[in-house]
Design brief:
By secondary structure, the chain is α+β, with helices and mostly antiparallel strands. The chain contains four helices and seven strands, in the order E-E-H-H-E-E-E-H-E-H-E. The chain has a seven-stranded mixed β-sheet, with helices on both faces.
Length: 169
């Protein structure tokens, strides 16, 4: 019998809630991408592979639908000009910004980059549009073991748990 997946929802209500991580020894550049950049799909797939993100099973039509989402914006984290991670923010009117996708490529995990990239990402979320009142996200028990502690160390607070059947590989 497979164990269930637990989704943990987290939020912050003020940019002052952010507790920034120290800068890593490596310079991290964060660059906004066009929604149709192949880096969005490629990096999402590479980040999510080990965690069985639903996007792993999407066909071309599902990717087109996702990339056409009106309020979705994407940034790539670069180290020496090469992708190291991805941030996607859903920025609908109303000031509630969702961290839709956040993660590092597997070979960049454990090098002190994730906390800093999340700090930069949260600052972006608070400034991506005027009048942001809430930044929120969810993480899965299937995500990397550093994910939830990193979110909480940066100042996100849990507000909901949701248990669901485990995603199929």
């Amino acid at each position: 019998m497979a164990d269930n997946e637990v989704l943990t929802y987290l939020q912050m209500f003020s940019p002052d809630d952010l507790r920034p991580a120290p800068r890593p020894p490596t310079t991290l550049e964060v660059k906004e991408l066009d929604q149709w950049s192949p880096l969005v799909r490629g990096t999402t797939l590479r980040v999510g592979r080990a965690h069985r993100w639903p996007s792993q099973r999407w066909d071309d039509q599902q990717w087109q639908t996702y990339l056409r989402r009106e309020h979705l914006r994407h940034w790539v984290a670069l180290i020496h000009g090469l992708p190291a991670g991805l941030l996607s923010l859903d920025v609908p009117p109303g000031g509630k910004v969702e961290v839709d996708t956040f993660g590092l490529l597997p070979d960049h995990i454990g090098h002190g980059i994730g906390g800093h990239f999340l700090s930069v990402s949260v600052r972006l979320a608070w400034t991506v549009t005027p009048h942001v009142s809430r930044v929120w996200l969810h993480t899965s028990s299937r995500d990397h073991g550093h994910a939830l502690p990193n979110y909480e160390r940066r100042g996100f607070r849990r507000y909901q748990l949701e248990e669901s059947p485990t995603r199929q590989p």
